[in-house]
């Protein structure tokens, strides 16, 4: 198996890449809608070819603001699985993390019961495991704004850092996990993720891509219902049908608040992480 790191001249391979994702994932596809985002943010899109030069798998390595690597969209055609394609993609991603991007870590996520995906990650040293729960809320009506306003990165840092432990050191948007640190908080604040009101309530909310599909709650502080009302109202005004929250499974306070508000439980997932020696 040979892995190719795509260049801008390969932009036209999207149709072939999308076909692999559809055959692999069915209805759960997002590479096509995130294609422009991938090309305009730090990282590398990878394709793996067999000995007959047929593209049989894909993956994307995103480089997050704190210089951690995020490995996503790993897809291998069913008829070519268990033949080394996934291993080749992992090996290339780790090579890029070490030699090109000098990443501090590499992480991925999978479903709690996806033994094959989790086992492959573990094989390549992603041994730190974190548990998360995910909830959805269907937006059907407008809620109150409650006086929330955007805050800059300095204020966002003051709001978020004290909650690192409660949130298990990570927040999630579009099933991408960001460690709670100044570099990532600054990026989120610059994209207008952080809002607060005069009552001490705050919310971190946004999307990484697929902006019209879901609105993601990353973090809440103060009175949770006020923050959730603001998020639902924001989704309603933007004609976004769903609000999603993915968070550490140990955060029982947030879990209870989402259930009481009317969120539907979707399931459990894990992230795996490898920390590099730098």
Provide structural commentary.
This protein is α+β, with helices and mostly antiparallel strands and 278 residues long. The chain folds into two domains: 2-103, Gcn5-related N-acetyltransferase (GNAT) (Aminopeptidase), CATH 3.40.630.30; 133-268, Gcn5-related N-acetyltransferase (GNAT) (Aminopeptidase, 3-Layer(aba) Sandwich), CATH 3.40.630.30. The chain has eight helices and 14 strands.
- Reading the helices and strands in chain order gives EHHEEEHEHEEHEEHEEEHEHE
**Might you state the CATH topology name of the largest domain?**
Aminopeptidase
Biggest β-sheet, characterized?
12 strands, mixed
Query: Class by helix and strand content?
Result: alpha+beta
The whole-number mean of residue pLDDT values reads 95
**Gyration radius, rounded:** 19 Å
Strand segment tally: 14
Low-pLDDT segments, ≥5 res: none
CATH class of the largest domain: Alpha Beta
Number of helices: 8
| Spatial shape | globular
Q: Strand portion, in percent?
A: 25-35%
Descriptive key words:
12-stranded mixed β-sheet; 278 residues; 8 helices; two-stranded antiparallel sheet; Aminopeptidase; globular; 14 strands; 2 domains; 33% strand; alpha+beta
Task: Show the helix and strand layout.
Layout: E1 2-5, H1 14-25, H2 31-39, E2 43-49, E3 55-63, E4 69-76, H3 85-101, E5 105-111, H4 115-123, E6 128-138, E7 149-150, H5 153-160, E8 170-173, E9 176-179, H6 182-190, E10 194-196, E11 202-206, E12 214-221, H7 224-237, E13 242-248, H8 252-261, E14 264-275
Parallel strand pairs: 4-5, 12-13
Antiparallel strand pairs: 1-2, 2-3, 3-4, 5-14, 6-13, 6-14, 7-10, 8-9, 10-11, 11-12
């Amino acid at each position: 198996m040979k892995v190719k790191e795509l260049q801008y001249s390969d932009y036209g391979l999207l149709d072939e890449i999308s076909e692999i994702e559809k055959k692999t994932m069915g209805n759960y596809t997002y590479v096509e809608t995130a294609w422009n985002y991938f090309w305009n943010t730090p990282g590398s899109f990878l394709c793996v070819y067999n000995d007959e030069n047929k593209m049989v798998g894909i993956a994307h390595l995103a480089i997050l603001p704190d210089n951690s690597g995020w490995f996503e969209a790993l897809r291998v055609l069913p008829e070519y699985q268990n033949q080394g394609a996934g291993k080749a993609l992992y090996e290339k991603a780790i090579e890029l993390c070490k030699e090109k991007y000098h990443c501090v870590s590499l992480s991925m996520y999978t479903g709690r019961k996806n033994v094959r995906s989790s086992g492959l990650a573990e094989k390549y040293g992603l041994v730190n495991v974190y548990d998360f729960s995910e909830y959805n809320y269907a937006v059907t009506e407008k809620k109150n704004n409650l006086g929330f306003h955007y805050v800059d990165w300095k204020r966002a840092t003051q709001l978020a850092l004290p909650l690192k432990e409660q949130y298990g050191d990570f927040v999630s948007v579009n099933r991408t996990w960001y460690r709670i640190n100044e570099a990532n908080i600054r990026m989120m604040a610059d994209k207008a993720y952080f809002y607060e009101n005069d009552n001490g309530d705050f919310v971190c909310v946004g999307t990484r891509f697929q902006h019209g599909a879901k609105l993601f709650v990353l973090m809440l502080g103060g009175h949770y219902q006020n923050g959730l009302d603001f998020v639902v109202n924001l989704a309603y005004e933007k004609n976004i049908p769903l609000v999603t929250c993915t968070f550490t499974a140990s955060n029982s306070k947030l879990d209870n608040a989402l259930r009481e508000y009317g969120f539907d439980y979707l399931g459990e997932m894990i992230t795996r992480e490898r920390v590099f020696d730098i």
